[in-house]
Every structure is written in C-alpha cells, then in structure tokens.
Design brief:
The chain has 457 residues and is α/β, with parallel strands linked by helices. It has 2 domains: 110 residues, Urease, subunit C, domain 1, CATH 2.30.40.10; 303 residues, TIM Barrel (Alpha-Beta Barrel), CATH 3.20.20.140. The strands form 3 sheets. Strands 1, 2, 3, 4, 5, 15, 16, 17 and 18 form a 9-stranded mixed beta sheet that branches. Strands 10-11-12-13-14 form a 5-stranded parallel beta sheet. Strand 12, helix 9 and strand 13 form a beta-alpha-beta unit. Helix 3 packs parallel to helix 4 and helix 7 crosses helix 8. The protein is globular and about 65 Å long.
C-alpha cells in the first residue's frame, strides 16, 4: 500500500470541481494526512509552510493538470468476468433476455474469490485513469452456502487492498427466492453497520441495494423502506432502464417504476435511481421533489438498446445527476464523453447538452458521492478527503473555467493519470502503481477463476 504523507502536490493547473469550482494556474494542493489542508497558488502554499517545509514531501506535477480523484457513480465490479464470455443460448432479443441469459446466470456463479478478483482487477485499471471512488452495486446470490452473506465484505477487501474508496450495496431481489432476498437485505444492513463502526477506516460505506422494482415484490420493498427508515443510508436501485420495468409497474396500478418506488418510500435525498429512461413527466417531478439522485449510464444504455435518458430535461428540474459506467468499464471518462454526444443525438440538436454533460462529472458525481462519506470527495478544497489525480495532460490551449468543458471532453478524458493520491496515500507515481500487489499474478488467478466460472455458467 502507498504511504500516507504530508504532501504538496504541484505545480500545475488545479481544477477544483464542484458547483463553485475554479481553475488555478501554477497551483498546488497541500495534503496533511488524509485531508486537504489548502488549495491555491503553488508558490504561496510553499511559502506559507515556513518552518514546516521539512515535514512535507513534494509530489511534482510538472505543469500537468491536477484534478480531484474521479468518481464512478454506478458500477458493477462483478461484471469483469463477463469479458469475452460466450453465451450458451441464442443471442438475446431484448433487455429482459439479456438479464436472463447473461447477468442473472453470471451472478449465480460467483463465489468468494471471484468477488474479490472481479473487483480488484477493474480498480487497478481505473487507477491509471484517476478513478478513486466507486458507488458499486453488487450481486452474488449464492456467494457462500447458497446465500450472499459476507459478499460485501469480500468486495470491500478488494477496495481496501487497492487503496481506493467505495460505497457498496447488495442488489436485493425476489428472483432467487425469499431466503436469498432476506439474507441479501441483512447483508446490506450488516455491511452498513460495519462501516459505521470503523470498518474500512472511512474508505468504505454502504447503501441498501435493490435490483429493480420489477424483480421486487411488495414485501421486499416494504422491508427496504423499514431498513432505510432505521439506517438512513439510502437505496441504490435500477429504475426504468427498460420499458419492461415501466410496463411492470403500470400492470400493478402505478404510473411507472418511479411511482411504485415513491409509494413504498424508496425515494429520498440519499437514494440513487440508475437510468430513469422510461419515466413520465409526473415521475420527473416525484424525483425532483424527493431530492433523489439519478445516475446516467449512456454507454450501457446504447449497448443494451434500451433508449436514452432525457438528461437535459432532468437537469432543468434541478435533479442531482451523476454519471456511471454500469460495469461496462471502471473508467467513467468514456461515459462522460458519450453522455455529451448522446444528449445532442437524442435531441437532433447540436446546441444541446454541453453544460449538462460537464456538470455530470464536475458537479454531480462529487456531490452525489459526498452524501455517503464523512468528508467531501471528488473535489479539491480545504477539508475534503485527499483524493488527487494528476493527469498526464499539458493543455495545448488556454485552460480556464470557461474552456474547461472542452478540455475535459476532448483532452483530459483521453488521458491517463501521472500521479494518483487517495486518502492521502500515493497509489500511482509517475504512471506506476505503488501498491504491494502482484498485478500480473492477480490477473493470472482471475483468468483461472473466470474459466471455471464460464464452465459453471
């Protein structure tokens, strides 16, 4: 594991992110332990150290762009083992068949070490692109002895070993029977309580995971509401990803998927709805009035041919919006770019979505992730967790607050990280991992487990 230190990162172009973010030329970030002490001009920070200069190590940015550690707001680590896997049935014709023939078979086959390896591998990949925080949605219903009990602790260990931070949940549904659903709910409760009593040292937190309303019966949604009333952790659920979810809710007498979740008290200021493609105008108002966040996964949506969310319209209603990858990759930069292109494509209007797409990454993801940790994450400001990504990018045109969107979309999002600090520890330095992990050996073990899983699949 990288060492925690007192660090002065810079000089470079500091981009702070957040709603009132700024760009500081020849800037720096001063880190004390796992917290940012101050952000400003590099020379000013260095001078202000005075007699403390000997206590601080310099992490030379060499004029590169200094960002906060990047947040992936909706991830499925366990999807790693699907890479290159052949299905045993005819190709799926719709989204429900994709679930039935791929994902619901894959998650049933996951065992203990599978869960660890399928998390550690993408996290290491993400570090090379500055990704330091994940909101992961996990499923392994038969993880050990026919239940998911203990699976989040296994995934969490991969997070701890790789130095990043994550908010984890187990996706409860009724598709594997009542016992698995009940144990899954208990697994969420157990993990949330563990994190609140110190497990993970502030780098782990938990939510109440649900798959989607169309795979959850009334009793399960009611149990989730009761647990959330007690824990106030928020629920993380797929919502209206496909038209089948909305149709299922309507068949139960609701306007749509959001309306049924509202009825059961699942919405709220700490809850996350992933996707929200097939929703009504009335449901948009339900989301906005409840303070619920929505996370957009454009690459996954295009891959599954389920449609495109009306992100510009949701933003106009003041809904907190973020961007994730839905397991397609740990690297959220691609979905950030795709979100921008898709907004304009959906509207057939080249004027649409420029500001909204940048806000997903720069404002939404940090605000959303910060709901689940004791200090702000995804921003460079005093008092925030010390998560920093120095990108290997030298701006070829002036970089300012006004030009930031163009640099993010067309430059930074295509770049790798040069240094990465998370929780005050250097995890990547000069492009090389600083972790006590045999990455090649880890990948070899993963291949063995993937082959065995494919045979069970």
């Amino acid at each position: 594991m990288g060492r925690m230190a007192r660090l002065l990162v810079g000089p470079g172009s500091v981009v702070t992110f957040g709603k009132d973010g700024e760009v500081i030329e020849e800037g720096g970030v001063l880190i004390d332990g796992n917290v940012i002490e101050s952000v400003g001009k590099y020379d000013d920070l260095h001078r202000a150290l005075g007699e403390r200069k000997e206590e601080f190590e310099t992490l030379d940015a060499g004029g590169r762009v200094i960002l906060p550690g990047i947040v992936n707001a909706h991830m499925h680590f366990y999807s790693t083992f699907a890479r290159g896997m052949a299905l045993k049935d005819a190709p799926p014709e719709n989204f429900v068949q994709i679930l039935e023939r791929l994902w619901w078979r894959l998650d049933k086959a996951l065992g203990p070490e599978d869960c660890y390896l399928s998390a550690a591998i993408p996290i290491l990949q993400g570090l090379r692109y500055g990704i330091t925080t994940y909101l992961d949605h996990h499923a392994s219903p038969f993880y050990r002895e026919g239940t998911p009990l203990g699976c989040l602790e296994e995934v969490g260990q991969a997070v701890l070993d790789t130095g990043v931070r994550a908010c984890l949940c187990y996706e409860v549904s009724d598709r594997d029977g009542q016992t698995v659903a009940e144990v899954g709910m208990s697994e969420n409760e157990r993990f949330i309580e563990m994190c609140r009593t110190g497990h993970g040292g502030g780098r782990l937190s938990g939510m109440i995971g649900l798959h989607a309303q169309f795979t959850c019966e009334d009793d399960t949604l009611e149990r989730a509401r009761q647990l959330n009333d007690y824990l106030r952790a928020g629920c993380h659920i797929h919502c209206a990803e496909d038209v089948a979810d909305a149709e299922n809710a309507r068949s139960r007498g609701f306007q749509g998927a959001v309306d049924r979740l509202r009825e059961f008290g699942i919405l709220g200021e700490k809850s996350i709805l992933a996707h929200c493609i097939h929703i009504t105008d009335a449901e948009v108002e339900m989301i906005a009035s409840s303070g619920t966040a929505v996370v957009h996964q454009p690459t996954s949506n295009m891959n599954n041919a389920v449609g495109a969310a009306a992100i510009v319209d949701l933003a106009a209603e003041g809904i907190l919006l973020g961007v994730g990858t839905d397991g397609m990759s740990p690297v959220v930069w691609n979905d950030f770019r795709t979100a921008s292109w898709l907004m304009r494509h959906r509207a057939a209007d080249p004027r649409q979505g420029w500001g909204e797409s940048v806000a997903l990454l720069v404002e939404g993801n940090p605000a959303l992730a910060s709901r689940y940790f004791e200090k702000p994450v995804g921003v460079l400001r005093e008092g925030a967790f010390a998560d920093v990504a120095v990108m290997d990018y030298f701006p070829p045109t002036p970089l300012s607050k006004d030009s930031l969107g163009g640099h993010l979309l067309f430059g930074l999002s295509h770049s790798t990280a040069y240094h990465v600090v998370c929780d005050g520890k250097i995890l990547l330095e000069s492009g090389r991992l600083k972790l006590d992990i045999d990455e090649e050996g880890l990948a070899a073990r993963a291949r063995e487990h993937a082959q065995e899983l494919w045979e069970r699949f």
